[in-house]
Amino acid sequence: MQDGTSDASMITEAEHWRSRDLAVLWHPCTQMREHPDVLPLLPVERGEGAWLVGRDGRRYLDAISSWWTNLFGHAEPRIVAAIARQAGTLEHVILAGCSHAPAVELAERLLAIAPREAGREPLAKVFYADNGSAGVEVALKMAFHWFRNRGETRRTKFVALENGYHGETLGALAVGDIPLYRRVYAPLLAEALFAPSPDAYLCEPGESPAQRAERAAAALRELLERHPGEVCALILEPRVQCAGGMRMHHPLYLRRARELCDAHGVFLIADEIAVGFGRTGTLFACEQAPAADGAAGIQPDLLCLSKGLTGGALPLAAVLATQSIYDGFLDDSRERAFLHSHSYTGNPLACAAALATLDIFAADGVIERNRATATRMAGHAAALAGHPHVADVRQAGMIVAFELARNGDRRTPFDPAARLGLRAYRGALARGVLLRPLGDVLYWMPPYCVDDDALRLLADTTRAAIDHALAEAGCA
């Protein structure tokens, strides 16, 4: 019983909402034919911290932070209050020719905390967009258009990393390298150049992650040398290729990429949409690049932020650019201006949520607390490392991934037709944990408020979900 409602009636209520949903909604990243018989559909009534409460009355641990957006837990009261205050004053106004305090204050604060590198021109301007893919589009267009304004019309290509992901609009998809998303739309996409990923999972026998990073950097150098004067920018996900299977690389690659971009006059675009705001152990993953001239961290020319920017409360993206990039668009000609726009650019409600998010970082010691949580997560994850079909356990801050392969041999992955990830998803959901595996990779990316009891449930459920998937597929 809950609030005087019987379990049976709550289950009926959940089925009612499933039926209404499937009658009208088209869900993202889903083969809709699989709903509801193959792929469960969870009608959610509300969120409470790290938990989701379904209309069936059950509680589900949100182990993936609702697609990597939720930082401090659902319905975080300080963010809720900030949105409510702003809604009572100004819900939206066109940002072309108008201004408002939340957009200005947020830009000031983002620039103040952005990665900085000694001797390099700092990031100085903020352009708002609506979501991560749109933010990537902004950065790509800025890089291309800046060179065109300078008369360097041969610079029309972008370099991206194999296995990378930057969104699903056509521009963002063009610099992505995940066949599942890209293959169908390939005829519509601009041609990009793909450099080998520094992915540590791909290390040769006896090769260290740092050596793998150096080898990938050497390949990047050769690629840039083959296309002199043709490349606008290199775009990469610092430290973790998230949608590509939570594949992680040594931060040395970031240092080498920065050096190569400088050597070839190419912009570096850092896509920190998923890894920014404390996910990997530092506020921004770029900060983890090894020291050069006594200072750690690298600074990109264009920095893309979204997801956790608002604590997961509202859609918002920000692209941070240098003053030189901004100045490259100043002219009497409108064609030389950056005319990209979104109706909801710099929405006051989203900016207010983002300001509240930054307030929480400042007040709560979030990064230090996350590091302690990450240590506990590592302890729980270590128990799964000995599973006979877990080929790799890897971690970057509060992201932990488990790669499944037959007999733990990364050279013999399971047949994709076995759909172990889907089976593990169903098994975890039955135990009250929302996982959303990437192929045969299960991962943890919980809200920062996750406690020890929830972590124990997460670890126990992950093992049970793996065993369930293997047994159901006849692979145990």
TrEMBL record:
Q: Which cofactor does it need?
A: pyridoxal 5'-phosphate
Predominantly, its location class is: cytoplasm
Query: One GO term of the cellular component aspect?
Result: cytoplasm
Task: Please name the InterPro entries in this protein's record.
Answer: Aminotrans_3 (IPR005814), BioA (IPR005815), PyrdxlP-dep_Trfase (IPR015424), PyrdxlP-dep_Trfase_major (IPR015421), PyrdxlP-dep_Trfase_small (IPR015422)
Q: What general EC class does the enzyme of this chain belong to?
A: transferase
Keywords carried by this UniProt record: Aminotransferase, Biotin biosynthesis, Cytoplasm, Pyridoxal phosphate, S-adenosyl-L-methionine, Transferase
Q: Which PANTHER family match?
A: ADENOSYLMETHIONINE-8-AMINO-7-OXONONANOATE AMINOTRANSFERASE
SUPFAM superfamilies given in the database record:
PLP-dependent transferases
Native organism is Vulcaniibacterium tengchongense
EC number(s): the record gives 2.6.1.62
Assembly behavior: Homodimer.
User: Which purpose does this protein serve, as stated in its record?
Assistant: Catalyzes the transfer of the alpha-amino group from S-adenosyl-L-methionine (SAM) to 7-keto-8-aminopelargonic acid (KAPA) to form 7,8-diaminopelargonic acid (DAPA). It is the only aminotransferase known to utilize SAM as an amino donor.
Question: What name does this protein carry?
Answer: Adenosylmethionine-8-amino-7-oxononanoate aminotransferase
N6-(pyridoxal phosphate)lysine is found on 307
GO terms for MF: adenosylmethionine-8-amino-7-oxononanoate transaminase activity; pyridoxal phosphate binding
Give the UniProt subcellular location, in the record's own words. Answer: Cytoplasm
Q: Residue numbers for the site described as Participates in the substrate recognition with KAPA and in a stacking interaction with the adenine ring of SAM? A: 29
Please state the pathway this protein functions in, per its UniProt record: Cofactor biosynthesis; biotin biosynthesis; 7,8-diaminononanoate from 8-amino-7-oxononanoate (SAM route): step 1/1
Catalyzes what?
(8S)-8-amino-7-oxononanoate + S-adenosyl-L-methionine = S-adenosyl-4-methylsulfanyl-2-oxobutanoate + (7R,8S)-7,8-diammoniononanoate
List this protein's GO terms for biological process.
Answer: biotin biosynthetic process
Q: Which family does it belong to?
A: Belongs to the class-III pyridoxal-phosphate-dependent aminotransferase family. BioA subfamily.
**What is the superkingdom listed in this entry's lineage?**
Bacteria
